[in-house]
TrEMBL record:
Keywords of the record: Membrane, Transmembrane, Transmembrane helix
Name of the featured protein: Phospho-N-acetylmuramoyl-pentapeptide-transferase
TM spans (from-to): 34-52, 64-82, 102-123, 130-148, 160-189, 196-217, 223-243
Domain of life, per lineage: Bacteria
Protein's organism: Alkalihalobacillus trypoxylicola
Length: 267
């Protein structure tokens, strides 16, 4: 079981060179072409955990893996074919209304909704309110992390905060989950910190989907509704202001945002 952990850095390197060789790259905020390959590492590590069947949690089941794979594919298609504009759910819906043209963003919205509906059925909620709560989390979390992924390590830092919250909430993960989580976080820290590779839409949305699964599994209904409210508020703000500009104007947030980026990409 633990030997397979060594496959994660190998997968990170192989996917990096594979994406570079076929031109699956995007220009980052520094103007450099970077492969969006780190989502492969996240997906691969999650698939290994589900293969081990570490617990009775639905969040680490084969059914959950189907949801995660769908989200990854949707994000990858957006990385591969998506245009720079329009932005956000509102932007894509407005573009569809005005131009009568389906964007990859619309495909992402529909695909994520279908994947979320599938996963709601797997969780087997006992009433409509619970089903709606699950759906909102499964649908909105991938969009949230995608919005955050405009600078290196932002999703990484949010991931740390998320897992600390779960731990403070009383969640006790197995040793294997901890080892896998730390390994993936370390790989992302090094490769994103050096600006060697990025999560891309495929990686960021996959991380968000994993957040949704564990929030449903661990958190109480009250905390789940709170998370939905926070996500919706963040989405509304993101439609009106630039997250990067907001962070840059606040010294403490800007310091935290830059933390880890002292690792410069080798020339």
């Amino acid at each position: 079981m633990y030997i397979s952990i060594f496959l994660l850095p190998i997968m990170a390197v192989l996917s990096l060179y594979a994406f570079q060789s076929v031109g699956w790259t995007v220009r980052n905020f520094e103007g450099n072409e970077i492969p969006y390959s780190l989502g492969v590492v996240v997906l691969f590590s999650f698939s290994l955990l589900t293969d081990f069947q570490l617990s009775n949690y639905i969040a680490t089941s084969k059914m959950a893996l189907v949801y995660i794979v769908i989200i990854w594919i949707i994000g990858f298609v957006d990385d591969l074919l998506g245009a720079d504009a329009p932005k956000g759910i509102k932007g894509h819906l407005k573009y569809l209304w005005n131009e009568k043209e389906i964007t990859t963003g619309i495909i992402k919205i529909i695909g994520t909704a279908v994947a979320a509906f599938y996963m709601v059925l797997i969780f087997e909620p006992d009433n409509l309110i619970t089903a709606l709560r699950y759906f909102f989390l499964l649908f909105l979390f991938p969009h949230l992390t995608n919005l955050l992924d405009t600078r290196p390590l932002r999703v990484w830092k949010v991931s740390l905060v998320f897992w600390f919250i779960l731990l403070a909430y009383g969640f006790t993960p197995s040793f294997t989950i901890v080892v896998y989580l730390l390994t993936v976080l370390y790989i992302l820290l090094i490769m994103e910190g050096h600006r060697i590779a990025m999560l891309g839409d495929n990686g960021a949305t996959t991380v968000g989907a994993i957040f949704a699964l564990w929030t449903i599994t661990i958190a109480t209904p009250q905390i789940q509704w709170l998370m939905i409210g926070i996500i919706l508020i963040f989405m509304l703000l993101a439609e009106r202001i630039s997250l990067t500009t907001f962070i840059e104007r606040r010294p403490l947030l800007n310091w935290f945002d830059q933390l880890g980026l002292f690792l410069k990409k080798p020339q």
